[in-house]
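Take a careful look at the protein record below. Let me know whether the structure tokens fit the sequence:
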Amino acid sequence: MAILGSIIKTAIDLRGAIVSEKSPVESQKEVLKQLLEKAKDTAFGKYYGFSQILESEDLEKSFSEKVPYFDYHQMEKEWWCKTQEGLKDISWPGTPTYFARSSGTTGKTSKRIPVTDEMIEAIRTTGIKQVGALTNFEIPSDFYEKEIMMLGSSTNLEKQDQFLEGEISGISASNIPFWFRGYYKPGEEIAQMDDWDQKVETIAKNARNWDIGALSGIPSWMELMMKKVIEYHDAKNIHEIWPNLQVYTTGGVAFQPYEKSFNQLLAHPIIVIDTYLASEGFLAFQNRPDTTSMKLVTDNGIYFEFVPFKPEYINEDGSLSQDAPALTLAEVEPDTDYVLIISTVSGAWRYLIGDTIAFTDIEKAEIKITGRTKFFLNVVGSQLSVNKMEVALREMEEKFDIRIPEFTLAAVKIEDEFYHHWYLGTESKKNSKEIADALDEALKEANKNYAVARSKALKGVKVTTVNPAVFHEWNAKNKKKGGQVKMEKVMGEEKFSEWEAFVKTQIE
């Protein structure tokens, strides 16, 4: 038995036994109070009367009544722009050290989201909690002596005025604890590379020098990196290069669509652990093996609210109607889609992060991500959420024995009639019409609103299959390779026209 690994595992086990957690509901009440106390003298806190809210008997109710919802554009236009100008105490005390750049899923303009020192500490603390949760999985002691490959954007942050800017994965990696640096790969020099292709090429060259036990990163880019390593060393699978690889910590997007293609790169199954690290904070992580759900981090700098995901509450641009009701953790129900709202130690307040979630276990505060507020197709009353789309596509994978890690679609008008046009990223040569018919039937059975739409305004389904690499190149063209990219699952008419023109350039 590896002595060092055994010591580390024992220390983690002891920490877990000593630390007793409060109930998620009670923790959330404390977090909200701490946030309001800390920010009451900021410009935002004074404007919305945080001191008065703190005096109310029902803190959560008073907070939701007096502070409106904000999406990124509202928060940036009304408050964060002043922070970017260097003014102090705007939505959080002092000024942030960092701004996280996130291109999101629409447009080419990067969002700039403040990341305070308190948020860096919160992310680090949650990361330690996640490491502690590894003892709930059947992992041998010697795993804790292996190296961890963290594949993210460049840690070479850019200086913008008095701030440092980069993607959240780069900011987080640039703040790893000193004691962890010996385990961290690809190492600081390679991690600073801005060119993703050069970074992956360098990783491939050095791969055999490392004893990797765990991988961490976004599935699509991790898959491409592993393929490059396998190809470079003329190997059959990644375990020929890293025989001790046992764990993959995924995040950014759901892993399930990539599961089939990812597993083909392995010699044997590994433990897959989901995380929910966004530019706005480390929101949740999977902390036990007998579920694929993630536990919300309810005691560490983030206060959560939940708006029922209903068409009448969602504006055309994906923002929230101000009269939409917000529920606390004590009021939610299982298996119901909610729009996630957060308030954080980075000065985001009642902030629409853009994701929808559903609770799988309320007592444990465990969730799954079900989609994006902007990835909701309701042009002709079909009311298709990403979750419904993903479930249908997993059925297609099983039915036709194919892999579909990527997709996008739009409602298109052909001779005055509406169709759903799907682009499926797959290497399969299966008949597109056959897939379209099966997909249509699966959606009819799973979604009554879709079935009604298909009997009226929605006339049919079209499917075009393209190589998954086309999706990667689209992301590279519009954003940046290796970054925090969420592919547009639902496109508007203008963006879909751009997409189709781009696809033609890739397959000609």
